[in-house]
Amino acid sequence: MTTKEEQAKVLIQAMPYIQKYQNKILVIKYGGNAMINEELKSSVMGDLVLLKLVGIKIILVHGGGPEINEMLKKVGKESKFVNGLRYTDEETVEIVRMVLAGKVNKSLVNHLENIGGKAIGLCGLDGHMLKCEKQSEDLGFVGKVTSVDTSVIEDCLDKGYIPVISTIGYDDDGNIYNVNADTVASVIAGAIGAESLILMTDIKGLLEDKDDENTLIKKVYVSDIPSYVKQGIISGGMIPKIECCKEAIRRGVNRVFITDGRVNHSILLELLSDEGMGTMFINGD
């Protein structure tokens, strides 16, 4: 088969998946290696613009840990973590706001625009999108989302933009919060009625043996999760990530994927093929 025939075959195979997602909302949490490797970044941005062009509504939620670490180092401030979450005092939260809502957010918007997309940068303060309270006194200004207002996101989608959202929240006392990006993607996906949520990570998906990538578990029913925790298959840093998957499903998202952001075009491979490439979470038994 010639290369052109192969390309046509791929497009035909993708057609039912494109039809399934047309006019539906897809939320993507973007972070990890895919954000700091320029080749992978271009691959992700290209995937998003393509999905938008075939009629899928895209919301991009991003983190920016390495850039925050770099800025803290520049100002002579040590990065501190408590149980995997960044301790965020008043000075740190200002740096987080500057880096995430400024540098990282606008860089992603610019990248999308430069390759033919229509994007607009937002953070959780815009339209009072992400209302928070302190998650724990031990973490400082790390926010737990208490309510979501998706009005400004819906306005952007209606006007044909890809909303690019940095994970900064607020409270009624004027405090600013640093919020976990997986959590924000999960609550936004539920609040806006997304068809699917993709969490991009630096691993292949949920592994039966965490040291063997050949033990990928392709499909997980939400009801299986407690058993996987009991067996130790879900442990450590995967516990909060999979809690976000479960929470999104509980809020009405049909499918949640954990997929490998280290692979070029992982979003397209996950959504538009029979095999997928990561772990899919769905409701039911």
Summary of the model, kept short:
With 285 residues, the chain is of the alpha/beta class. Helices cover 42% and strands 22% of the residues. Strand 9 (168-170) and strand 10 form a beta hairpin.
CATH topology call: Carbamate kinase
- Give the CATH class: Alpha Beta
Low-confidence runs of at least 5 consecutive residues: none
Name given to the CATH homologous superfamily: Acetylglutamate kinase-like
Largest sheet descriptor: 8 strands, mixed
Structural shape: globular
Specify the number of helices. Answer: 10
Give the strand tally.
Answer: 14
Across the major sheet, the strand order is 5-8-2-1-11-13-14-12
Q: Structural class, from helix and strand content?
A: alpha/beta
Tally of structural domains: 1
Layout of secondary structure:
Blueprint: H1 3-21, E1 25-30, H2 33-36, H3 38-53, E2 57-62, H4 65-74, E3 81-82, E4 85-86, H5 90-114, E5 119-123, E6 130-134, E7 143-148, H6 151-158, E8 162-166, E9 168-170, E10 176-178, H7 181-192, E11 196-201, E12 219-221, H8 225-231, H9 238-250, E13 255-260, H10 266-271, E14 279-282
Parallel strand pairs: 1-2, 1-11, 2-8, 5-8, 11-13, 12-14
Antiparallel strand pairs: 3-4, 6-7, 9-10, 13-14
Descriptive overview:
By secondary structure, the protein is α/β, with parallel strands linked by helices. 42% of the residues lie in helices and 22% in strands. Helix 4 packs across helix 5 and helix 7 (181-192) runs parallel beside helix 9. The longest helix is centred in the middle third of the chain and has 25 residues, at 90-114. The chain is globular and about 60 Å long. The chain starts with a helix and ends with a strand. The mean pLDDT is 91.
